[in-house]
Amino acid sequence: MTDKDPSFLFSGITFNRKRFSSDFARFKEKKEINDSEGTLPENKSPEVEVAAKPAKKRKRKSSVSDPVEGFNVFKSSKTEPVLEENEESENASEGKKELYRQMERDAIFRKQHNIHTSGSNIPSPLHDFSELRSRYKCKPYILRNLAELGIKEPTPIQMQAIPLLLSGRECFACAPTGSGKTLAFVCPMLMKLKHASKDGVRAVILLPTRELASQTARECKKLAKGKKFYIRLMTKQLANTGEFSKLPCDILISTPLRLKSAVNKRKLDLSRVEYLVLDESDKLFDLGLLKPVDAIVKACSNPSIIRSLFSATLPDTVEELARTIMHDAVRVIIGRKNSASESIKQKLVFVGSEEGKLMALRQTFEESLNPPVLVFVQNKERAKDLYKELRFGDIRVDVIHSDLSQEQRENAIDNFRAGKTWVLIATDVIARGMDFKGVNCVVNYDFPDSSSAYIHRIGRSGRAGRSGEAVTFYTEADIRYLKNIANVMKASGCEVPEWILSLPKLKWKKHRPKREFLSTKPHDEEEEE
Ligand SMILES: Nc1ncnc2c1ncn2[C@@H]1O[C@H](COP(=O)(O)OP(=O)(O)OP(=O)(O)O)[C@@H](O)[C@H]1O
């Protein structure tokens, strides 16, 4: 990400409604923002709260001046409730005290759950899902679906991101792999959309790969079960032939290139989009995708759009960019920024040279093969080569890479999910976001090309509170880059040899050395295939 010009990305917004969000918030639906359980209303600064008057003591003069969000919008109006001077100041000071007490309770709760926030007027975190109903009047179908999915307690990212998005705030959030970020944006999106409509696309979720888009569409539908929303996945066919003007669509889930192509070729109108989520946002801001993403952000020209960015890794460059272009956005970090999930046991294994890798892999499998296992390699050629090596053994192995057809890719994923495949060899195409619940081990056969690639790859295991294991092979040539991985390991509580930590600091450019594939088969056997 080199282009930091704020006018490049997220430009095209003519009327800056977000900038004045606190003013606008006052005119938003009172029922969504007020906390019916008696906790403080959302979205208010201490200054605002000073003007608050506890409901019980308020003397009403007229119903026209009903307070909005705990304070009176028309403060100078003649219809303002009249209070005795002393009573007013007493109430104001009680209101202020209660605000500070609530802020203190929120701070303690956030600390307990490792939630770090920055920004102004941040709504109280959600303690449990029942608050969706009491605070935000969530429809029963969502709570029913959560229960059916076995989702009982919100995860820390859900605790904070859900109230933020429900309060109409923009946010950029960084939370570990497998910590439930999808639900953190899908749940408030369904709640805010309320019901199906035929008024054009209302929400867009952008993701970097087709597999991830299709997984997210499935998750959306699961949470929307029982409610007739139009949730659509942008398939190749839809992008090329869709009659979008006639196609009802509440939520559109797509990769950037397909969506941009639909906007250009099929005149898909995104001007009514109210919610835009960039999931795996740092990947979307990679140079290859930046232009189409920028075009889509511009096409989503609704001035009151709410944008949010989610990822398990949020490099400073992306964060700086987000900071300059989003309006009054709140930053949410769960745990330490750019760190691996703590439920993964991580190990480094020295394999000497490329020659040693295959032996080390076979040995690992012989000693303890605990399927399902994911094996990551550097590119599709290496994926094909490793597959050739392993496919005739006793292990049920399959491969996934970008040279396969969409159908083949989907089959590989389905078979792995269903347990028919024990070991799936993969390139980074599925390193991000894919939710294979029970992956026991990730093997980095080839050293990852960046620390964020490492975090995402190993994050395919140890999800939703489960434990997992990650083994990373390294050769002599990889030693220079070891320290960056070792730092990630150490930060998530794994033991790392001291000599690695004392290696010189190296600015990591993408580490993708040319790797020679070394077969263990006799040459004539190789040629037959
Ligand atoms: N509150 C919850 N309680 C239990 N399980 C949950 C909860 N929220 C989500 N999950 C489950 O956790 C798994 C991981 O969620 P999800 O895929 O959203 O993770 P993520 O944070 O987006 O990970 P990644 O960074 O790898 O994309 C999913 O199977 C999801 O159903």
From TrEMBL:
Question: Superkingdom of the source?
Answer: Eukaryota
Q: What is its EC number?
A: 3.6.4.13
Q: List residues of the Helicase C-terminal domain.
A: 343-504
- UniProt xrefs under PROSITE patterns: HELICASE_ATP_BIND_1, HELICASE_CTER, Q_MOTIF
Q: Which residues form the Helicase ATP-binding domain?
A: 162-332
- Which Gene Ontology BP terms does the record give? maturation of SSU-rRNA
Q: Where is the composition biased (Acidic residues)?
A: 82-91
A Pfam family of this chain = DEAD
Tell me what organism the protein belongs to: Lactuca saligna
Q: Where is the DEAD-box RNA helicase Q domain?
A: 131-159
Renumbered to this chain, region (Disordered) spans 31-97
- Locate the motif Q motif: 131-159
Alphabetical UniProt keywords: ATP-binding, Helicase, Hydrolase, Nucleotide-binding, RNA-binding
GO cellular component assignments: cytosol
Q: What family name appears in the similarity comment?
A: Belongs to the DEAD box helicase family. DDX52/ROK1 subfamily.
| Reactions that this protein is recorded to catalyse | ATP + H2O = ADP + phosphate + H(+)
Record-linked InterPro entries: DDX52/Rok1_DEADc, DEAD/DEAH_box_helicase_dom, DEAD_box_RNA_helicase, Helicase_ATP-bd, Helicase_C-like, P-loop_NTPase, RNA_helicase_DEAD_Q_motif
Q: Which GO MF terms does the UniProt record name?
A: ATP binding; hydrolase activity; RNA binding; RNA helicase activity
> What is the protein named?
RNA helicase
